[in-house]
Amino acid sequence: MSTEQKINELREELRQHNYNYYVLDAAVISDYEFDMKLKELQKLEEEYPEFYDPNSPTLRVGGEVTKNFETIVHEYRMYSLDNSYSKEDLLDWEKRLKKQVDGAINYTCELKYDGASISLTYEDGVLVRAVTRGDGVQGDNVTTNVKTIKSVPLKLKGDFPAKFDIRGEIVLPYDGFIKMNKERVAAGEEPYANPRNTASGSLKLQDSSETARRPLDCLLYNITGNRLGIISQFESLEKARDWGFKVPVESKKVNSIDEVLEFVAYWDEHRHDLPYETDGIVIKVNSLQQQEELGFTAKAPRWAMAYKFKAEQVSTKLHEITYQVGRTGAITPVANLEPVSLAGTTVKRASLHNADQIEKLDIRVGDTVFVEKGGEIIPKIIAVNLKKRKDDSKPTIYITECPECQTELIRKEGEAQHYCPNYAGCSPQIIGRIQHYISRKAMDIEGLGGETVALLVNEGLIVNYADLYELKKEQVVPLERMAEKSAENLIEGIEKSKKIPFERVLFALGIRYVGETVAKKLAKHYKFIDAIVDASEEELVNVDEIGIKIAQSVVEFFASEENRNLVRRLQQYGVQLEISAEKLANQTNKLEGETYVVSGVFEKVSRNELKKMIEDNGGKVSSSISSKTSFIIAGANMGPSKLEKANKLEIPIISEDEFLQKIEKE
Ligand code: AMP
Ligand code: ZN
């Protein structure tokens, strides 16, 4: 046998043992034998580096160090899930489903694993990338760390598709978590608070050999890609299992909401027997064609629903109410609590939202309160234990002045929040606006964090975001905890932000009510900043999906001489304040004013590609047929009730080919 053959054989053998041990939980050789074989392979690989393979089992031990995790845009967005808490919620959901799809609906019930979500990309059966969920649109490239997790296959078996993404959750099973904590305590270190945060923290460790030492596990639940030849969610779980992934076997196919509830009841009780944390179950429409018909809201798939297990509750004492000032001047009251352990973390603070909430709870300093935490990170105060209230307790009086700059607070008609109107002089507002500007979804300035912004403002080096572009390295170096190298990175990061596309710059400006989606809409419609600066309220409300509140806020923002000045300066520094020529070239107005519904299965392009084409050409995509629908693009298996509705409303139905011809460039 040649050396190359020997190496390949060992790799194959070790891969199989890894799979037996970590995926199937059924080892066939002893740890010792495994180690001996691994050592043998390591030795051969060292001697014959020409047979290097990035997916060799020897590389599971890690060693590569990552300083900055690269940002990767997900090819398919990673959505969140809608939540339900009762039978009624589920029946309502089913009613909505039945309006949108034809035929019987079956469901797959799965456990909701509580860890860190991950998206793995495989090409030709080889793991090429692992990316965290991040904000759903883009995440961090953590491939080197994920490769050290033994239940993640580096190479697949069976009849896998050429290219696909698979999503799952990286969890830290209780056993491993407890063992890690014991070791930490023995070494005089603080124990970790809970498995979930430890799992997500483990993905962002710079040294992958450190990640390799953590007993992480990866549980998969969703396959995403174009034309994969799979017809149901349940089938996709089985397929993934065949290809070598760890897919928990608890999942169940059911035919009714009643059966869903049985599954919930069973696992609400038995979840503590599982080796890892779960915080609910996830119910998914089983047919992938029905899933396609249903599509997504801005936040979550319409075809899936989480059902949260009952939240844990504890009672504790309220010591003090403090008030925070946000970047828009909004005041948020915060309850400072006697630290208490809840669902694995120590809770010390909870948001009280606004004055109305305080009044509604009639919450007072010294009260004993009930705190609840669902799956969310932020705990909530749900009630006061009046039995324990002292006789001399006094009602809470809401503040009237800004705690930071002593300006008198205002509260607009119909709004719940109090505001500090001192836009130009209130320090948390100044700092908050710049922090928003540099944040990840906005200008994403690498090398500059929120604390450094505060430092720069407090040192008088900047007072607004345009000032960032005037910063010199020499000014930054003398700052506390600032090394030569980090000052360089900071300046470089600011320079790089000049390439960030217009829509994100527009979001970064921090105009009230102009979130990511609205910024995209405005950028697409107006194409360059001057057109927005000059737009009147009436013009703005005529833009699709822009309401009066947003329009007023935009006009108000640009009415300020100071803001117009800021924009002019950004323009001078070379920040993108118009849509790039390249993007413009790919966009047309051919479908302006037309609304499309896409239904069925297509041959040449995927449904998502079709939708993008419609939007790039100025059209609108809608998920349900109404009198406002201009065309229906129908693929194979368009649902009969949709067809009937289309005929009744006399809406033209066109094929994939007809549509592609329609938008073809002259
Ligand atoms: P949430 O973070 O509460 O919006 O819930 C959405 C998250 O649940 C997803 O991003 C997944 O990471 C996670 N999740 C856990 N188990 C599942 C599952 N079986 N199916 C889908 N998502 C799941
Ligand atoms: Zn103030």
Oligomeric state of shown chains: single chain
Largest sheet: 5 strands, mixed
Total beta strand runs? 20
Please state the CA-atom Rg, rounded to the nearest Å: 28 Å
Mean pLDDT: 90
Helical proportion, percent range = 25-40%
Low-confidence stretches: none
Q: Report the structural category.
A: alpha+beta
Which kinds of small molecule does this entry bind, naming each only once?
adenosine monophosphate, zinc ion
Strand % is 15-25%
Terminal CA distance reads 61 Å
The shape, in one word, is globular
Q: How many helical stretches? A: 25
Strand order of the largest sheet: 2-11-10-3-9
Question: Tags for this entry?
Answer:
5-stranded mixed β-sheet; alpha+beta; 18% strand; 666 residues; 20 strands; binds adenosine monophosphate
Please outline what is shown here.
The chain has 666 residues and is an alpha+beta fold.
Provide structural commentary.
- With 666 residues, this protein is an alpha+beta fold.
- The protein is 37% helix and 18% strand.
- It has 25 helices and 20 strands.
- Strands 2-11-10-3-9 form a 5-stranded mixed sheet. The chain has a 5-stranded antiparallel sheet with strand order 14-13-12-15-16, with no helix packed on it.
- The longest helix is centred in the first third of the chain and has 21 residues, at 3-23.
- The mean pLDDT is 90.
- Bound molecules: adenosine monophosphate and zinc ion.
- The site of adenosine monophosphate has 12 residues, from strand 3.
